## 1
Amino acid sequence: MRSITNVLLLCIVTLSFSQASADTYVLTGQMLDVRSGKMLQNQVLQIANERIVAISSRDSATIPTGATVFDYSQQFIVPGLIDAHVHLHGNATDHGYRRLADSLPTRTLKGAVNAARTLRAGFTSARMVGAPGFADVALRDAIDSGAIEGPRLRVAGPSIGITGGHCSDNNLLPFDSEVIGEGVADGPWAMRQRVRRNKKFGADVIKTCSTGGVLSKGTEVGAPQGTVEELTALVEEAHSHGLKVAVHAHGASGIRNAIAAGADSVEHASFIDDEGIRMAKKAGTVLVMDIYNTEYILGEGEAAGILPESLEKERRVGATQRESFSRAHAAGVKMVFGTDAGVYPHGDNARQFARMVRFGMTPLEAIRAATLDAAELLDFADDVGELTVGHYADFVVVDANPLDDVSVLENPAAVVKGGQLISAQQD
């Protein structure tokens, strides 16, 4: 039997789709103010035309005539969550050589399915850091038009990097296949040309690699890729077009190279050293560290097709990356929530919150990393990241206070994007 709350939630669906978007409805309940860190009691949120138009306490609230009211007084309202490192076009069960069987249309269709899973898990915004053939641009635009269901996206298009690089080339095929990855660029001017191409075809962030990676064949996870000159040219070109740059980097020297080149964020940052931490803090470089997915790689990776060499690399990386996370956080480096979804199953994104708390953050810091701080990195801060007047009505409803137990975010009771119910927990 459905609870009263769930029946009311289902009514929101009817309201959102059968009446004009100008209609107003009101939510009451306990609301997390991520900026102050307080769980505010007896709050009233008024929503119209996809956005929050008023917030007040229940004692002082004026509810518009004809507005429909929904009571969440026994639950907790949290801003819509943001994952800053996802790969929606790939499935966790299709690693290694299995991915050679996927055509571009196949990957695009997988992206549509995985976008819906991500949204229903409470992530109303995300950043896709690399996708083949601008499949991510098509996905973003389809979501924005309302054609399919998914989070608000920032997308990178094909990742850019050197010949044989982790994020740019196809190293699974032999020489006589005569295949060169679509993101390959060698030399500063080639890097600039690739940035211009990605911008032309719709990317709104640039992704490159300054070290090898765990899941690529034939790359050493800590070895530098690309010179500082190449990386600097890429960053300068991207910034000249108003695009931020995300740099995949595991090794200490590659991390320092990325920061020196002006990267906006460093992804993974597994072997960051004290000098890299100092540089990141001074430059304001954001670290996006995926400290959950090592559990999936080492637990399920072999069955999912992950290559033996990749499993060996992950055994060297996982524990060290978590130690690096703790050191960087303790030093006060800016850190944003990002999971590398697609390495593990889409929809499990919120499992990382508990690991972020285990390795040094408070629940509030972990939530801020996936709301306020992530919105700033993705240039979404004017629209999402907190529950405030003027922002989109993107929020997650949970049954317990996430400031006491952040793992409750793994099982949202309801997810709302732009004032429309996306999913509701069923009894």
## 2
Amino acid sequence: MSPAQANQPLPSGFALEGYRIERQLSLGGFSIVYLATDPHGKTVAIKEYLPNSLALRAGENPSPVISPVHRRVFDHGLSCFFEEGQALTLLDHPNVVRVIDFIRANGTAYLVMRYEHGHTLLEHIHKHPKGFDENFIRWVFSRLLGGLRAVHSHRLLHLDLKPANIYLRLNGSPVLLDFGAARQVIGNDAPLLRAMRTPGYAAPEQGGPREGLGPWTDIYAVGATLYTCLGGDTPPAAEDRLVEDKCVPAGQRWAGQYSQELLQTVDACMALDPLARPQSVHALQKLLDSEERSFAGALDKLRVRVRKWWRR
């Protein structure tokens, strides 16, 4: 593959099958995301498949230029993107971004998604670098895991779960975004584009054969995202931890600041051995739910003791 190159986004005002491109929202290794309006004037987000190592758009031609040496890989990625789009249009969950349309045009493909108002979890972390209240963390992640479980039920893996890909609506409810790395359908033996891995959040097995990937791979990213929520910084990359693990366990780093049950769960999710992690989102949900009841019960007992002390 050629080195990554700068792709030119579609211009403001560009007409795309009845939608109007307003401006670019973000640019990633696999795609460009735009703010757009639908035929009724409603705001939507549109993601364009345009891997910058395979295709180049320059000048006024909206169709990217793809060299013959890259055509097979580009077409395979396009096929996976199409299958992903089909799967996501069937996935209707309040904590997963809603895909409402799929378009083939300009030699590539586009996902039309519901536009959400709010900000990313990463932005929220930057505003609160010393960490969040445990109740807030549990509230957000219990809903986020519901969305991730729905994704896995459609035999999809996300493979790029991180604070930047989690959106918080104005009411705080999370939305799982950007399935650009979710081209991998569990059980599909077709060759894949090289996955985009984010250091600190990507599980160690993402650097190896795809047969080792599964729900536990996304669970590592959940643990790493929780770790960032607790302290504001990204944990060390998994490949570095395999050489020398300098990641201070959550149970040690934040002892006394959060419940030991929550900290132990974070460490379990971030285990380098995939078999040492919760093996499914359902298992992780059960763990967090039981901890939440335990945590709430401990708070109730504390309130009772405080009331008794106050009445003395």
